[in-house]
Amino acid sequence: MRVKVVCAGGGPAGLYLSILLKLRDPSHDITVHERNPEGSTYGWGVTYWRGLLDTLHEHDPESARAIETSSVRWHEGVAHVRELTTRQPGDEGHGIGRHRLLEILAERARSLGVRLEFEHGITPEDLPAADLVVAADGVHSALRTRHAGHFGTEIGTGRNHYLWLGTSKVFDAFTFAFVETDHGWIWCYGYGYGPESSTCVVECAPETWTGLGLDTANDADGLALLEKLFADVLDGHPLIGRSSGDGGSRWLNFRTLTNRTWHRDNLVLIGDAAHTTHYSIGAGTTLAMEDAIALAGALHEEPALPGAFRRYEQERKQALLSVQSAARHSARWYENLPRYIHLPPQQMFALLGQRHSPLLPHVPPQLYYRLDKAATQSEALRSLKRWLGPRLARTVQARASRR
Questions:
Q1: Do the Cβ atoms of 340 and 333 come closer than 8 Å?
Q2: Which residue from 12, 143, 183, 342 puts its CA 20 to 30 A from 151's CA?
Q3: Cβ atoms within 10 Å, residue 128
Q4: 3-state secondary structure 304-354
């Protein structure tokens, strides 16, 4: 049955959904509206893991091959703490420029007959008539905000400040650098996304941010200070901020967004409009595209929108439980960095890799390290760790809620 679809937002979620719907039924009338000009984007590079690539190959091999060809990969993590460095093997990670990813998806969507309307955002007041309206317009979604009470939107703001930058330094591994200053610790995450470029996300506690004067520094002075602080890991390469025409390089506090329900009448939320997870787990793009896959599948399997929406929402909320838990614990690990940073580098890096664990915040770090090391050789200890962590976390959360 031919369906008219209007999608607000030309990010990975909206574009990939339009591709999958057209592949299911070429007769669908699909328009993607994007408020920004074509080719303009932010975010430098994005990360994903091998599991997503395998899933993309299952659903659309053509776009998957283009994404894989345009990506860089790494198999190691590197942590720099003061003058010490430790390197460990890890899962295969991938990086791709956000601009290139959107270019691939836009080209594929057009080839299938999707209309792309750039510099044409959608607001609740000028919503085109359609059978299905998809809000893929991000964390600040205008379509969701109009009905925030219905959706049960809740937003929590993280404590730390962060800044999204690029650099011409090409990291050969996923790189962490922790620098101690007179005002506390500041750190960065760096990963390559092309032959000449990397993403570099800088983060610090609020007292460090103000103590270093980053709250009042202009873009040029702020970048110069950060380049000095991270000179060892940058090897003389510059940090690159957004242009002033794009609003400049802004320090932010991460906003964790949840919604009680993801649909209203013929309107459905997808990607960051529906949920966000802390950037430190590198899952945003993956979750957006997995949303698109689940929604396309539900719309194909269910004859009416209400049933399709319920199926989509139930599937994705269940899949998000473990990811959102990991993201919360990861964010808190960095907010409590002084608890871990003075460990020997090998131990600190090991616990950095364990930052998703609900058990870690409640066990002395060195004891946790020894238990985790022992658990690698004992299935009984691994099972105990998996059983105990969530239960302890729920108990602590319940006590906190009663205060």
A1: yes
A2: 12
A3: 12
A4: CHHHHHHHHHHHHHHHHHHHHHHHHHHHHHHHCHHHCCCCCHHHHHHHHHC
Is residue 92 a contact partner of residue 73, using CB atoms and an 8 Å limit?
yes
Q: How far is the C-alpha of 146 from the C-alpha of 162, rounded, in Å? A: 28
Q: How many CB atoms lie within 10 A of CB 86?
A: 18
- Contact status, residue 98 vs residue 44, Cβ threshold 8 Å: yes
Higher model confidence: residue 103 or residue 249?
A: 103
Block residue for tokens 């703490």: 81
Show the tokens assigned to 75. Answer: 């198999």
Residue where the block lists tokens 């794009």: 246
Residues 224 and 240: beta-carbon distance below 8 Å = no
Q: What does the pLDDT look like over 221-237, one tens digit per residue? A: 999 999 999 999 999 99
